[in-house]
Amino acid sequence: MRYGYFDNEKREYVITRPDTPMSWINYLGTPEYGALISNNASGYSFYRSPALQRLLRFRFNSIPMDRPGRYIYIRDDKNRDYWSASWQPVAKGFEKYKSECRHGMGYTRFISEYAGIKSNYKVFVPLNDPIEFWELEIENKSEEERELSIFPYAEFCFWNIEQDLKNFQYILYTCRMDYLDDIIDYSLLFAGGNEEKAFMASTVPVSGFDTDRDVFIGNYHHEGNPAAVERGRCFNSIAVGGNPCAALHIKLKLKPGEKRWLAFIVGIGNARVEGKNYKEKYSSKEAVAKEFQAIQDYWQKRMSNYKCETPSWEVNTMVNIWNQYQCHMTFNWSRSASFNEAGGRDGIGYRDTNQDTLGVVHAIPEEVKQKLINLLKAQLSEGYAIHNFQPLVLQQGEHNVVPREGIFSDDHLWLLLSVGAYLRETGDLGFLEEVVPYADKGEATVYEHLKQALEFSWEYRGPNGFLYGMAADWNDCINLKGEGESIWSTFLFYRAIQEFLEMARRKGREEDSIHFEGYAGIIRENLAGKAWDGEWFIRGYLDSGRKLGSAESEGSKIFLNTQSWAVVSGAFKEEKARKAMESVNTYLATEHGLLLNYPAFREFDEEVGAITSFPAGLKENGAIFCHANTWAVIAEAILGNGDRAFEYYLSYLPARHNDRADKYTMEPYVYCQFITGKEHPYHFGRARNSWLTGTAAWSFVGISQYILGVRADYDGLLIDPAIPREWESYKVYRKFRGKDFYIEVKNPDKVSNGVKELRVNGELLAGNLIPLDVMQEENRVEVILG
Description:
This protein is of the alpha+beta class. It is 28% helix and 27% strand. The chain is built from 19 helices and 42 strands.
């Protein structure tokens, strides 16, 4: 069953059935003011920090689902019937209530019609002000004059999410509400003396208001039948303590065919100052429309640096629109704000954000550079990194030192990949000489930061010569304590060394090149000997010396990541690499993607860790972990297996599931964290945890750089496709170092890879690299495979 469709011309996903199996959401806003909104207008907002400055409240994992939100109630004052501009929360029957939700780039729109009244309700966040607009156009499509009441409603959060969720004996007695000049004022003074303020304003005259949630909703009522809406007017309540809300009452008379425009502004600041100023500034439809146009221009610019035209509509839809948009959202908010993360995990995850930069560095390299500096500041002088941190409050000091059992073996190594990607994209080798402080003490150049990251990993190796697992590696639920060793982190270490060697050579650091080439040689020899199991690479060694992910192992015998990273790392290219990836296809491939491991663990194993606590087929225990699938796509592309790479890519592609959305359940326009695996007794193929996932960035890297094969390089632009043999041609537009590239790839011999001919602006070049010295401001590139 499908619930909507893609409108690519408008860059929207259109939801035509509002009763989606899960909340299908959109992200709005900027790194300053963020907002989440579902297809039924639920969600929340925050200013800079979703944990410390949460403005609007949302109840996670609740019944009924998807509450509360940005609701606009519409009431017919003659017959007392009422409904909402979004289907929820009133939820009128589909036989009379017609609606669609349009999620777009930076906005969400609800178009509904009921009882002869059509409403068009749009929510967006402007670029430069910490506010959100609720813009409503309402039209009388009946043949008689209508008297209507409009009630915008939002429930305020107590700012600090932990206080809001837990400390009711204190926090319920702190808010101070007020009302003046059609503006609701929300104030909360914390025990430390800091005061947070917000407001709701109307662009049209107001007939009444409420600031006390329990009064507006009423005892034993809910958002679907508020007492104020039922009776047709607000109570003019002023909350001093209690649960704060913002509700306004606007009365309208509409003649047949008449339309009216009005808007409400919710935002940060004092109602008497900022609230009043914003109300005056945005009192006209034209002023608000100007801000909306700026949002559209903003997203057009951010998403205009890469575009493809392929024989697959799913690829074109995801790559050109939704995958890039999702990459920007993960870059902005890491894993801190979603419908799964309540917001207590504030700031950014170290490994997460390093990887998130890979999906946007082609579009916003300067912003990526600043993010990299923030990440470098969270690295300790010993070389490891703080797993989760908040850049807004990070201060240098010994308090940032982490004991060994809290260190993640992979975090710091991702710096090598993210900095390497930035350098290849920009050619900014001077960045390596910039000086950045460590989190605990001292400072060093970026180059020395990266070098120290490698030295730390070399120092912390176990009895078999592989990196200690420590708290965890990429898989947070594999906890190899004591002498436990991670083969996967060792593959990442090998890849990180390769990235550093390229930088050292270009900086003329011959001594460092020789030094780390020695490390790489030893690591590769260990991997070839002690990590190879005959048909695949093992996952690690446990504290007791037992192998993890071996044919002889109890529990799970093969893991996806050590097979894909044997190739992605560059450590293995032929026999072992191909055999390992063939084992992936044999044991891990399913119609909905590749299993993370097989078979799933059935009994708890303390030496392995939390992965063994999940039921089979869920999360890290035998699920289809989409992030890990992206690396298998890249591995097969590197090996030249374009058909298989594309098969794997399509298997977990959200758009492919649009027509089975009732089974898939999550949004078909963005990637999710995992899809339930085949060993689950009931829900094979069900998706969970969408939006904020490393799947977004790595999927974009996989399709754009490895399948379509257009990659930034230190010395130019590399053309190295690995496509399905059946493709006859495709096109890519790509901006690289300020220059435009219009690339057309033709495949007359029906091959997957191999560049037979490369012409740039009519000039035949040798090989498959477009060097910097032949590039013009605009470049026409013709590629023939064979």
